[in-house]
Amino acid sequence: MALLSSKPKWPTVPDYFHDWALVDVETSGLRPGRDRILSLAVITLDGHGRQTGEFSTLLNPGCDPGPVHIHGLTPARLCGAPVFEDIAPQVGALLSSRVLVAHNAQFDYDFLAHEFARARSWVPVDRRLCTLSLNRLVAPATPDLKLGTLAAHYGVLQERAHDARDDVRVLSGILRGSLSAAERLGLPLPLLACPPRQDYKPYVPKTPCAYRNPGRLETDGPLVQGMKVAITGDTRVSREELVARSVAAGLNVMTSVSGLTSVVVTNDSGGASSKLRRAAAEGVPLVDEPTYLRLLNDVQPGQAKGTVRTGAASQQGEAAPSAEATPQPVPAPSVPAQRTTAPAATAAQPLAGHRVLVLGGTHDEAAAARSRALSLGASAAVNLSASVTDVVVLTGGEADRRLSRIATLGLRVHDGGWLLAPTAASAPMPTQNTSENPSDTAEVLARGAVIDLPHADVAWTVAAAWSQHAACEVDVVAFALDEHEQVAGDEDFVFYSAPEHPDGTVRLALDGPSEQAVTADLGRLPWEVQRIVVAAA
């Protein structure tokens, strides 16, 4: 699809230097919200008019193709063609960071906007140029401003009218001639910001963010995948587009502000919205929309969720397995898990038989301490219970309110250095359950009771059963909580409509109207999950 060589010179005015994306669409009708694109062609040019790319395709609209006598696209020709969603990424890459050019650009842009919205995305252009509007300013000596008429005026050969591939080739010649004429007349280009109006709403589903929250946006620092972003107030770019672009970049867009929010986007930092009030109370940084859009162009890679707790890599401080590995479902035990006698201490495992509770420290420091205890043969406790034998106090742990109870119980208290050279003092051993009846091995908890689960390498099942005394239904739910005792995202809420955590570590079994169970594979829980809370509603 080479451009014609006998063309007017490309303009030399700097204001005319842009990267261009020339577009033509053939459609099943004239209404963007109802009708569909049947064929699409794109040519990209650099600021000097040199062709840098091209693309064209037929599209299967999934509907009647409309006026076949105009575009010649019959159902038979379109059968087997891709749907727009299949080619949206390729088209988006051609349009991105370029000025969209079309003849009657409002028409082409609106159709593209609706097609991208159906594909759960947006048109990635900020400005467009309509060659029809440009030639209204140039006012060539032609009876009308139709594409074919202007093609003849600027010396561009038109071979197949209403063929997207040929029409976009013709458009490239018309753009060259129109820009040359506009330069001679000293005309500014009628560039129009996109989108001029938003009568469509891209469908952006609330999907789990794949990255861990790296914390607050630092002053003059970059956005990092996993950051929690809240948007408040009016924006120049539609809210739907901002959300779609943020999600596509790996950011976690929230509908509220909390202490975990990384940044709030607002064009009115002095406003009185509830989000801004909460941001001020929590010390969350604010950025305006232009700054945010600039930062969106260079989002830094984040840390994927799903890093598991066990494994040598975690114990040695190396990168843990990627969350992209396909999780394998863990079958629930056929009988409740059984407590077993801990092994005796050895030189390789000097803390065998010890149960270590870690207080204080950052999330990563506490996790590293528990991993170290596990590597030395101990088990790790997250609550103070009767089976705890040793307590490790990291920075900040001295303020933990449980220390008075620990002193009363006479438990051994150590600083963080103890785990580097522990002494294998005698430790109480968990009681062995020797019952041969599987039903006797189940722990039955009274309200408020706490027990520790001694094994981190098996799937535990918490079963709930009740007597039906009323017509209301009971739903068992599970919450995967982070270090702040909060549910980080929708994916961490396991219930009847979403009975499995995305990584397969927490599952809900619906066994009937009066019995349900939650299975949790504690050994495979991602690092960011600190607690599984099981409740009934």
Account of the 3D structure:
The protein is α/β, with parallel strands linked by helices and 537 residues long. It has three domains: 180 residues, Nucleotidyltransferase, domain 5 (2-Layer Sandwich); 100 residues, 3-Layer(aba) Sandwich (Rossmann fold), CATH 3.40.50; 99 residues, Lipoxygenase-1 (Sandwich), CATH 2.60.60. The protein is built from 13 helices and 20 strands. The longest helix has 22 residues. The N terminus is likely disordered.
Overall 3D geometry?
elongated
The CATH architecture category of the largest domain equals: 2-Layer Sandwich
Look at the structure and name the CATH superfamily of the largest domain. Ribonuclease H-like superfamily/Ribonuclease H
Strand content: 15-25%
Give the low-pLDDT segments. 1-5, 311-343, 426-441
Helix content: 10-25%
Task: Provide the structure class.
Answer: alpha/beta
Largest sheet, if any? 6 strands, mixed
Q: Number of helical segments?
A: 13
Q: Fill in the CATH topology of the largest domain.
A: Nucleotidyltransferase, domain 5
Query: What is the end-to-end distance?
Result: 64 Å
Mean of all residue-level pLDDT scores: 80
Placed side by side, the strands forming the largest sheet appear as 3-2-1-4-5-6
Rg over CA atoms: 32 Å
Count of separate structural domains: 3
Number of strands: 20
- The CATH class of the largest domain is identified as Alpha Beta
Give keywords.
3 domains, elongated, 23% helix, 13 helices, single chain, Nucleotidyltransferase, domain 5, 537 residues, 4-stranded parallel β-sheet, 6-stranded mixed β-sheet, alpha/beta, disordered N terminus, 20 strands, Rossmann fold, Lipoxygenase-1
